[in-house]
Amino acid sequence: MTNVTVVNHPLLKRDITILRRAETPHGVFRKTLSDASAILAYEVMRDIGLGEVVVQGPLEESTGFVVKDTVVVVPIMRAGLGMVDGFIRFIPEARVGHLGMYRDEDTLTPVDYYSSLPENIENARTFVVDPMLATGGSATGAIQLLKDKGAINIAFVCLLAAPEGVEKLGLEHPDVPIVTASLEERLDENAFIRPGLGDAGDRIFGTA
């Protein structure tokens, strides 16, 4: 699993604990997910490209830096929407695409229902975000769609990752790094991550 980075940060561990609690209200869940996503975004963008600029300060000029890379954040709906704010709080100029996918509960395979992506994605740093990497079906499907559109520099960022999903994504897209807050124990017979945190989409939007 050399393509996987587990972000080890005390505040992230605290946030994961809050998210795991069944009694956490959806408003708190939503904010905590956003905060945890910001920590992941900070880590995954450590190598973001910078360009030099001259800044006129109160006393004199100095050399500073601006983000040079074009950044695209692509949430896998619906749960991935909860991670977008964590990224754009650092890169407010980032463009946001949307991919709608759901898991067929009989076949456990992803079904595409919506796609809206920025132009010129082939020149961008693209971050696919979804709180959960379970079977890996949605993640691999989303990444393949992005590659078909020309995206080259892609990373997958999630809160929790099951070993089955990590293996599938690594086999189908070995060039795509996975950044996560936690490697989980397993998938159960219904393809839910254990111990996990339940249905992230329902908990974000209060539909459970």
Structure, described:
- With 208 residues, this protein is an alpha/beta fold.
- It has six helices and 13 strands.
- It has helices spanning 10-20, 26-44, 81-88, 137-148, 163-172, 200-205; strands at 4-6, 50-56, 61-67, 70-77, 95-96, 98-103, 110-116, 124-129, 132-133, 153-161, 178-183, 186-187, 193-194.
- The strands form three sheets. Strands 1, 4, 5, 6, 7, 8, 9, 10 and 11 form a nine-stranded mixed sheet that branches. A two-stranded antiparallel sheet has the order 2-3. A two-stranded antiparallel ribbon has the order 12-13.
- β9, α4 and β10 form a beta-alpha-beta unit.
- α1 (10-20) packs antiparallel against α2 (26-44) and α2 (26-44) crosses α3.
- It is globular and about 65 Å long.
- The mean pLDDT is 92.
Outline of the structure:
This protein has 208 residues and is of the alpha/beta class. The chain has 6 helices and 13 strands. The protein is globular, with a radius of gyration of 18 Å.
Quick tags:
alpha/beta; two-stranded antiparallel ribbon; 6 helices; 208 residues; 32% strand; 9-stranded mixed β-sheet
Fraction of residues in H or I helices: 25-40%
Instruction: Label the structural class.
Output: alpha/beta
Q: What is the β-strand count? A: 13
* Sheet of most strands: 9 strands, mixed
Radius of gyration: 18 Å
How much strand? 25-35%
Q: What letter string, H or E per element, gives the SSE order?
A: EHHEEEHEEEEEHEHEEEH
Kindly, what is the distance between the CA atoms of the first and last residues, rounded to a whole number of angstroms? 34 Å
Gross morphology: globular
